[in-house]
Design brief:
Blueprint lengths: L1 H37 L4 E16 L6 E15 L8 H11 L3 H4 L8 H30 L1 E2 L6 E6 L4 H4 L7 E7 L2 E3 L5 H6 L5 E8 L2 E8 L1 E2 L7 E2 L2 E5 L1 E2 L3 H28 L1 H4 L6 H11 L4 H19 L7 H14 L5 H31 L6
Antiparallel strand pairs: 1-2, 3-12, 4-5, 4-11, 5-6, 5-7, 7-8, 9-10
Helix pairs in contact: 1-4, 1-10, 4-7, 4-10, 4-11, 7-10, 9-12
C-alpha cells in the first residue's frame, strides 16, 4: 500500500513536470503565432500536444485550426508556406519560382520580406524570455520571495563525494548557521558567494536533520564548474516570505538578470570547454529529476525552476542549428546580407552537418542524465 502511494506521488510529480514543460513549449509557439498573424501570415494550425488529433475548432475568420492532440507534450504552429520537409532556402526558391496568386502571396510566410520572417522566427525565443520574467514576478507575488536569512535555507541537492555529503548532510536538512573564517554569515544572498570566495578554507555548518541538530567542520574544495571557486557541495533553497509589491518587482528584475547571466555563462562554458562541462548539462531527463526533487520544497522554488527552463529553452532555440529557430534565423540573416536567398544545396549541407552535431549533443546529454540517475547523483 505504501509503495502504491509513493508511486502515485512520483507519477503526479512527473505529470506536473510534463504539463509545465508543455506549457512553456506551447507559449513559445504562441509567440510565433502572434507575430505571424500581426504580419499577415496565415496560420493553418495551432496545436496543443502532438500525435493524432483529438478534437479541434476552425476559426471562420482566420481559417486557423485550433487543435488538441493525443500526446500532451508541446505543440506547434503551422504557417502557410511551411512544409516542414524542405529547407528554408528551398521553400523560398520554390515560392518565388511558383509566383502564386496575389491573394495567396499575401498570407504566405515565404512572401514576407526577410525582416518580417526574421521577426516571426525569433518571436518564439523572445516569448520564452518574457515568460521567464512573468513567472518570476507572478511566483514572487503569489508565494513570496526567498528569505534573506541564512537560517531559512533548506538543502535541496548534494554533490556526490563532496565535503557536505561526506560529513553527513542529507536532502531536506534545515541550515541553521554558517561560519566562515570565524565570522557568521547571516545574509542568504551572500551565502553562496562567501563560500565560493573561501576556497581551501574551513567552514562550520550547523543544520537540523529531523529533531537532531548537528555542526560539521569541512574544508572547501574547487567547484566542479569553476576550479578557482570553493564549494562544499550542497545546493541551498531558501524558504519563502511575503514582501511588498515594490520588493516583489525588484526581486523579479534581479532574478531575471541573474537567470540570464547564469544561463548565458553556462552556455559559454559549454561552447568553449565542451569536454569539461558537457557532462554537467541536463536534458529533459535531468530536468525531470530536478523537478521532482524541487517540488518537495513548494511552488516558489518550482516556479523558479520553470522560469529557468523557459529562459534556457529560449536561449537554446537561438543556437544556429537545424530544427531550431536560430538555424532558420541564421539563413534569413545571410539572405539579408547577400540580398538574395542562400543556395538550397549549400543550406542542405550545413543542415546535415548541424543536425548530426545536434543529435550527438542530445545523445551526450541523455547519456550523462541517465548515468547520474543510475549512480544516484543529483543534477546540480
Amino acid at each position: 500500500m505504501l509503495l502504491a502511494v509513493v508511486t502515485l506521488a512520483s507519477l503526479g510529480k512527473v505529470v506536473t513536470f510534463i504539463v509545465m514543460l508543455s506549457i512553456l513549449v506551447v507559449l513559445h509557439e504562441y509567440g510565433h503565432f502572434i507575430v505571424a498573424r500581426r504580419n499577415g501570415v496565415k496560420v493553418n494550425e495551432f496545436a496543443v500536444g502532438m500525435g493524432p488529433k483529438l478534437f479541434g475548432y476552425t476559426s471562420p475568420r482566420s481559417g486557423t485550426l485550433y487543435s488538441f492532440r493525443a500526446l500532451p507534450i508541446g505543440g506547434y504552429c503551422a504557417m502557410e508556406g511551411e512544409d516542414n520537409k524542405t529547407s528554408e532556402a528551398e521553400q523560398q526558391r520554390a515560392f518565388r519560382e511558383g509566383a502564386g496568386a496575389a491573394q495567396v502571396r499575401s498570407v504566405n510566410f515565404q512572401a514576407k520580406n526577410p525582416w518580417q520572417r526574421l521577426a516571426i522566427v525569433l518571436a518564439g525565443p523572445v516569448a520564452n524570455f518574457i515568460l521567464c520574467y512573468l513567472i518570476l514576478f507572478g511566483g514572487a507575488l503569489l508565494f513570496g520571495v526567498p528569505s534573506s536569512k541564512v537560517d531559512q535555507a533548506m538543502v535541496s541537492a548534494l554533490v556526490a563525494n563532496f565535503p557536505a555529503e561526506k560529513a553527513g548532510m542529507k536532502l531536506g536538512d534545515r541550515v541553521i548557521g554558517v561560519r566562515v573564517g570565524g565570522v557568521d554569515v547571516t545574509d542568504a544572498s551572500q551565502l553562496v558567494k562567501t563560500i565560493h570566495d573561501a576556497l581551501g578554507k574551513n567552514i562550520d555548518v550547523t543544520f537540523k536533520h529531523g529533531d537532531a541538530t548537528r555542526t560539521i567542520h569541512v574544508k572547501t574544495v574547487p567547484c566542479p564548474t569553476d576550479r578557482a571557486q570553493g564549494c562544499i557541495g550542497f545546493q541551498p533553497t531558501m524558504l519563502y516570505e511575503r514582501v511588498s509589491f515594490g520588493e516583489t518587482f525588484n526581486y523579479a528584475n534581479d532574478a531575471f538578470v541573474a537567470t540570464a547571466d547564469n544561463t548565458v555563462s553556462q552556455l559559454g562554458l559549454i561552447i568553449t570547454h565542451f569536454t569539461q562541462y558537457a557532462p554537467q548539462v541536463s536534458g529533459v531527463i535531468g530536468m525531470g529529476q530536478a523537478a521532482t526533487t524541487i517540488q518537495d520544497f513548494g511552488w516558489g522554488p518550482y516556479l523558479q525552476l520553470a522560469a529557468l527552463i523557459s529562459f534556457a529553452l529560449g536561449l537554446f532555440n537561438l543556437l544556429p542549428l537545424p530544427a531550431l529557430d536560430g538555424g532558420r534565423a541564421a539563413f534569413i540573416v545571410a539572405e539579408l546580407l547577400r540580398r538574395k536567398p542562400v543556395d538550397p544545396e549549400r543550406e542542405a549541407m550545413v543542415h546535415f552537418v548541424g543536425f548530426a552535431a545536434l543529435l550527438a549533443l542530445m545523445a551526450v546529454i541523455a547519456y550523462h542524465d541517465i548515468t547520474r540517475i543510475v549512480a544516484g547523483k543529483g543534477v546540480f
